[in-house]
Amino acid sequence: MNLFFQQIINGLTLGSIYGLVALGLTLVYGILHIPNFAHGALYMVGAFMSYFFMTDLGMHYWIAMAGSAAVVAVLAILCERLVFHPLRNSPPIHDKIAAIGILLFLEAVVQMFWGSDFRRLSSPFTGIMNFDGLIIPEQRLLIIVGAFALVIALQLFLRKTMTGATIIAMAQSREGAFLVGIDANRVAMMTFAISGVLAAVAASLYAPINLVYPAMGHLVIMKAFVIIILGGMGSIPGAIAGGMIIGFAEAFGGFYISTAYKDIIAFGLLVLILSVRPQGLFAKGAH
Amino acid sequence: MLQLENVDVCYGSFKALTDISMTVDTGELVVLLGANGAGKTTLFNAISGLVKPAGGDIRFEDKHLNGMKPSAVVSSGVVQCAEGRKLFPQMSVQQNLMMGAYVHRRDREGNKKRLNEVLELFPILEDKANQPAGSLSGGQQQMVAIGRAMMSRPRLLMLDEPSLGLAPLVVRQMFETIRQINSLGTTVLLAEQNAFAALKIADRAYVMENGRLVMEGDREAMLGNEEVRKAYIGA
User: Fold this and answer.
1) CA A259 to CA A35: how far, in whole Å?
2) Full domain range(s) for residue B117
3) 3-state helix, strand, coil in chain B (%, to 5)
4) Among A16-25, A111-120, A128-137, A147-156, whose mean pLDDT is lowest?
5) Are B102 and A286 within 8 A, CB to CB?
6) What residue ranges are annotated as transmembrane (chain A) (predicted)?
7) Is residue A207 part of a domain?
8) Are residues B165 and B146 in the same domain?
9) Shared domain check, B109 and B159
10) A175 and chain B: CB distance < 8 Å anywhere?
């Protein structure tokens, strides 16, 4: 029975990380209809910035995470201002190509500074908690609690503040948002900044139990796309639920079937769910 | 209050508006008549900053609106209630109305007072306050759209075909409310195809055809004009 609960913890850990990354992706898609492939690179830069702040500057884990979030938020805003904003009236394919360009560019820059070696981010939360035989590493607990806290904070921001509501308004009716005087540029920059923060925090939380390397964003962004398609493009609850579904499927599939197949499970689920519900679990507009 | 001088709008090589010159004075209710495709919505969008004019000048009080961002146009007091309503469908009625107060978001007391005034204009919205705006009937959605525009505290309210797709009884109530909004001090520019109902509440009117203003006059002159009666009133 403990092994079963162990998989629940593993599923929650993976689901929390996937959910955070997918949330940022779905927010940007909901507002600007940009499938931001560069989001995986922002995730990777987030991990490297935390690594840099901790290893090279000797900062504490929390301060390094906050610094990383700030740097990636600024980087995300720069991507919006310098690349996506000038392309706003271009055919949609231009956004996609530009996003892939940013992904490759950021990977090359990181590789230039840190090389392509695998690195490990140390965390002060290395202990293991034992709840009556159920073993939970502290870092995994931190990931779950941190991700839930961040999702709740984001929901409160979006639903209880006028500034947050502008993001939802823009996603529901772009023209309606213009008519009430919402500044589209401000909302776009804010949305990119939030997506950057989510990616950096997810990477900084997950890096201590994984490895840090320039290509680390590839599989995560692929899965984040699976999640937002599965949950419904642009849907916030869809991103959270989708993240959990993929996280649990990987944890249980990896344990009960084979870890060799755990990455295929996400894509198998995508095919299965889309053949039953082509619009995704939460249709667009479930904001 | 609002002055347009020789305004042109182009979509690529297609000229949607040609040499539009018109005025709206403070306190007036001016109607813009025209068939589908005449250019009424394009004109409203040009004034609102949603479309950039290719030439000419748009002035509101002492400000030039040309090239201004839509958010700046709303802040200056020119608010459009667009054709098709453009509500936030999953937000509640109350949230939609409060989003209308976005440019005045720091004045919480003022917004509360304004909300009460809007609910006095449309009492039915009070009962529907927590319902998603997208689930309301067409008439009620139009009330939310006008209410949301009123929450922006417009000095000039531009209404683009508010009667479109509504039942005759609801249309009558809608025009009565528009007249009431105007009598309470808001200047109104109303684009309509329902010429008879619109002219009944108007001070003046312009007629648009193929992107040009082809006629203007006060209510009596328009109601008495044979061409207008034939083309728009059907009598």
Assistant:
1) 29
2) 90-153
3) 40, 30, 30
4) A128-137
5) no
6) 12-31, 61-84, 96-114, 141-158, 187-213, 225-249, 255-274
7) yes
8) no
9) no
10) yes
**Do residues B174 and B113 both lie within one domain?**
no
**B43 lies in the same domain as B97:** no
Q: Is A241 a member of any domain?
A: yes
* A96-105, A131-140, A183-192, A238-247, range with the lowest pLDDT: A131-140
Residue whose entry in the numeric block shows the structure tokens 């927010």: A27
- Mean confidence (pLDDT) of chain B: 91
The verdict on residue B12 lying in a domain is no
Closest CA to A20 of A196, A212, A183: A196
A3 in reach of chain B (CB within 8 A): no
Q: B38 with B48, same domain? A: yes
Half-sphere exposure in the Cβ direction for A79 (13 Å, CA): 30
Looking at the fold, whether B163 and B223 belong to one and the same domain comes out as yes
Q: Which residues touch A136 (CB under 8 Å, ≥6 apart)?
A: A9, A128, A129, A130
Average pLDDT on A3-15 reads 90
Residue B115 confidence (pLDDT): 95
Tell me chain B's radius of gyration from C-alpha atoms: 17
Q: Is the Cβ pair A180, B99 closer than 8 Å?
A: yes
Return d(Cα B205, Cα B195) in angstroms, integer. 10
Chain A residue with Cα closest to B104: A181
Do B40 and B30 share a domain, yes or no? yes
- B67 and B163 both lie in a single domain: yes
CB contact under 8 A, A168 and B88: yes
> Which is more confident, B167 or B70?
B70
Among candidates A168, A169, A179 on the partner chain, residue whose Cβ is nearest the Cβ of B82: A179
- The counts of H helices and E strands in chain B are 10, 10
Option in A166, A168, A178 nearest B50 (CB) = A178
User: Taking CB atoms and an 8 Å limit, are B71 and A178 in contact across chains?
Assistant: yes
Residue pLDDT, tens place only, B151-192? 999 999 999 999 888 888 888 889 999 999 999 999 999 999
Contact B103 A179 (CB under 8 A): no
- The whole domain housing A42 covers 2-118+132-276
Domain-embedded: residue A204: yes
With cut-offs at 50, 70 and 90, classify the pLDDT of residue B234: low
What would the pLDDT profile of B85-136 be if each residue is shown by its tens digit? 899 999 999 999 999 999 999 999 999 999 999 999 999 999 999 999 999 9
Number of domains chain B is built from: 2
Does residue B210 or residue A277 have the better pLDDT? B210
ipTM of the prediction: 0.87
Nearest-neighbour CA in chain B from A26: distance (Å)? 17
Name the domain boundary from B114, B133, B153: B153
A160 in contact with B at a CB cutoff of 8 Å?
no
Say if residue B227 is exposed, middle or buried (CB neighbours under 10 Å; 0-12, 13-18, 19+). Answer: exposed
Residue B216 lies in a domain: yes
Q: Kindly state whether B105 is in contact with chain A, defined as any CB-CB distance less than 8 angstroms.
A: yes
Of A165, A175, A181, the CB nearest to B103: A181
Q: Is B64 on the interface with A (CB under 8 A)?
A: no
Does B98 map to a domain? Answer: yes
Q: What is the CA radius of gyration of chain A?
A: 19
Tell me, yes or no, whether A72 lies in a domain: yes
| pTM of the predicted protein model | 0.85
